[in-house]
Specification:
Number of helices: 5
Shape: elongated
Number of strands: 11
Distance between the termini: 43 Å
Helix content: 25-40%
Radius of gyration: 19 Å
Structural class: alpha/beta
Largest sheet: 5 strands, parallel
């Protein structure tokens, strides 16, 4: 994104990112979240419950598009709106600039939202640098077989860094299923 405030945009992909974000919240009250998917809505809910003033900007028509039917996603958005979250659907942030009080985000329709911090919840990107340096085959994620085997014998990968059948599955349920399958494989029952 263009602008002078991008250093106040947080992508949260792991615990150290989350710790850095949480420590930056001290004394802050206004949060803008880019993205109304599972992570964006979860952060919106948690931060609102925590007493923060929350705006969510998303290019989608409603919340959780692609995960839930339109009516169900709309119900989630309505529930969060009733709790005080402000949604800006069918919009994207086009620029983020620093201000004395925090950041000024300009949306593609010219709307300006002032906040202290911005969270980017527009999707996770698998971290594959170490795997690539180790010589493992990598595309969108670390390439694995249906048994979670990498291109190197006795090395397995699972979770949001693993690519199975051309897909990187970023959610907890696939991770849990992969963990159970890998445990069986490691114990001698290829799964």
């Amino acid at each position: 994104l263009p602008g002078s405030g991008t250093d106040k945009v947080f992508s949260i992909n792991d615990l150290s990112d989350y710790r850095r974000f949480r420590s930056s919240l001290k004394g802050k009250k206004r949060i803008l979240i880019m993205g109304a998917g599972l992570i964006g809505c979860e952060f919106a809910n948690d931060l609102k419950i925590g007493g923060y003033d929350v705006d969510v900007v998303a290019p989608s028509e409603t919340a959780l598009t692609g995960l839930l039917p339109l009516e169900a996603g709309s119900a989630v958005a309505e529930g969060l709106t009733a709790a005080g979250v402000r949604f800006h659907f069918s919009r994207v942030v086009s620029q983020i600039d620093s201000s004395l009080e925090g950041v000024i985000s300009t949306l593609d329709d010219g709307t300006v939202i002032e906040s202290d911090i911005v969270i980017s919840a527009v999707g996770l990107k698998p971290r594959t640098v170490l795997a690539k340096q180790a010589g493992l085959e990598v595309e969108h994620g670390i390439l694995v077989s249906r048994a979670l085997e990498t291109s190197e014998r006795d090395i397995f990968a699972l979770g949001d860094c693993a690519e199975v059948d051309g897909k990187v599955l970023l959610y907890v349920l696939p991770l849990m299923a992969c963990a159970r399958a890998l445990a069986k494989t490691i114990c001698g029952e290829r799964t």
